[in-house]
Amino acid sequence: MPANPQTVVNSWNEWNPLKHVIVGRADATMVQAPEPAIERNWPDHGFPRGTYGRLPPAMDAKANEQLDNFARILESRGVRVDRPTPLDFSQEVRTPDWKQASMFGCMPPRDVLLTVGNEILEATMSYRSRWYEYLCYRPLLEQYFREDPNFRWEAAPKPRLTERTYRKDYWRKWEKMTPAEKEQAIYHQDWVLTEEEPCFDAADIARAGKDLFVYHSSVTNRAGIDWLRRHFPHQRLHVMSFYETNPIHIDATFVFLRPGLALSNPKRVPLVPELTDLLKRNGWEIVQAAQPALDGYPPLSFCSPWLSMNTLMLDPKTICVDAQEVRQMEQFDQLGLEVVPVPFADVSAFGGGLHCATADVYREGTCEDYFPKQIEGY
Ligand code: ABU
After folding, report:
1. What pLDDT is recorded for position 1?
2. Cβ atoms 250, 228 nearer than 8 A
3. 94 forms bridges with which residues in the sheet?
4. Of 213, 208, 204, nearest to 244 (Cα)?
5. First and final CA of the chain: distance in angstroms?
């Protein structure tokens, strides 16, 4: 097949003009079967602990309608949109080390794919149910590889995910812990993953040109952060952690909006003070996000109401926001951003908001230094 000059992989940050993106699909997404990393327990919605199965097809249909509409909005603004190829997520998967009764889905490409410059890196993932999720993106990555001679296609080492990768019965023990014990766990960042092997989800990384900021979360361990540091020797890598009981993915906690402006979750206090120091020292403003539309987690969702912060920048002045997040939209408006409201409330149960539902392929621009005044040791 001849090279297609229109396909170029390039994206260094979260805000430069977006020209090419992957938007996920909700098809046949599962409430995962229990596994060492996670056990769903949603008795009020038909999935008590130990059970698993497909999310109701009527929910798929509504979510896909909103995802398709989002794709059309992006296309109407000149953005090329590609979509993944879903698998049969209800199938049992196995490796020589384990078997897992179900997979998950492919709504959130941001969790799996990290774009840094001309590279797209497939994350390790840390749930067994998500071990094979990269396969949904392989048709696209193969296509980009054929069409863009400079595309660096990388995959992080697939983790073994044996029992040694996880603290045993972590979540059951968590439920029995006193508030003081939980507080200690949060301060020590003792999450379900051990340091047996590198694990990370791509959505735990926020990109700002020469600087990558990585969230030490329940799906990204210190070894994963170390692997990323060695893998990107030309970038400066900074670790972030926040006061949060269920830390998963940075994009509802701390978000770079444009050079000089970041959005912070007012309920999740940074535990690494160097993060705010670094931003302030370089003249960045950190704004506390507005109150979300919802009070709690949406039904059958592992994502918090702070998906209100889970937005997609189309360029430094234009932001896509979930249309139900009226207060957040008002705040962005006051910050001088053009807000594009996107109906997205029906997508959250499938793994996230507008940022989760996308993965960058091409944004204009090059690798710039937005933090020339560094903090030694951070
Ligand atoms: N996957 C993004 C969800 C993060 C959160 O709800 O905090």
Report:
1. 43
2. no
3. 99
4. 204
5. 46
287 and 263 in contact (C-beta within 8 Å)? yes
Nearest to 195 by CA among 169, 217, 166, 173: 166
Domains and CATH numbers, the chain: 18-363 (3.75.10.10)
Distance between Cα 213 and ligand 1 center (Å): 16
Answer whether 354 contacts ligand 1 (Cβ < 6 A).
Answer: no
* Cα–Cα distance measured from residue 317 to residue 335, given in angstroms and rounded to the nearest whole number: 10
Convert 244-257 to b/e letters by CB count within 10 Å (16 or more is b): beebbbbbbbbbbb
Gap between the Cα atoms of 25 and 366, Å rounded: 30
State the Cα angle at 294 between 62 and 343, rounded to 5°.
35
Q: Which of 268, 304, 354, 355 to mutate to test the pocket of ligand 1 (most atoms within 8 A of CB)?
A: 304
Using a cut of 0.90, tell me whether the model's pTM lies above it: yes
Quick one: pLDDT at residue 2? 46
Are residues 281 and 224 in contact, defined by beta-carbon separation less than 8 angstroms? Answer: no
Residues in the chain: 378
Contact 277, 271 (CB under 8 A): no
- pLDDT mean by block of 10 residues, the chain; 378 residues: 72 98 97 96 94 95 98 98 98 98 98 98 98 98 98 98 96 91 90 97 98 98 98 98 94 98 97 96 98 93 96 98 98 98 97 98 98 97
